[in-house]
Amino acid sequence: MIGILGILAAVSTVSSDNFSFTSPGIYVAACLVGIGAFWIRHNNRAVQRLGRHLRLAEERIHQLANRAYGSQQPLLSWELTRQAQREQLRGVKRQAGLLSGWTLNS
Asked: In terms of C-beta density within 10 A (0-12 exposed, 13-18 middle, 19 or more buried), how is residue 20 classed?
């Protein structure tokens, strides 16, 4: 989706004979890029909301495994590990994650 919007933005920008701020192609391209950024951000946020549910399921599985087998080792830890890595980001990487929707909490 974002690739198609990028191609459409590029084509609409260079399709006019004169390249200036008065030509509508630049504004159409800016709108297309904005729509693409909006789409990516909301898709990423939806993935993060699913991640919250996965973390809850992982915690529940750990509790059940601990009760059933006495195991202190986590059986599933992928989502918990990824979220911990996201929370450790600082600086520009953290700001990019917040802007793009890969980190829900600020």
From this structure: exposed
| Sequence letter at residue 16 | S
Burial of 90 (0-12, 13-18, 19+ CB in 10 A): exposed
Neighbours of 102 (CB within 10 A): 19
In a domain, 106, yes or no: no
Nearest-Å Rg of the Cα atoms of the chain is 21
Q: Which domain holds residue 78?
A: 2-100
The H-assigned helical ranges of 23-77 are 24-69
Domain count, the chain: 1
pLDDT tens digit sequence for 71-85: 777 777 777 787 788
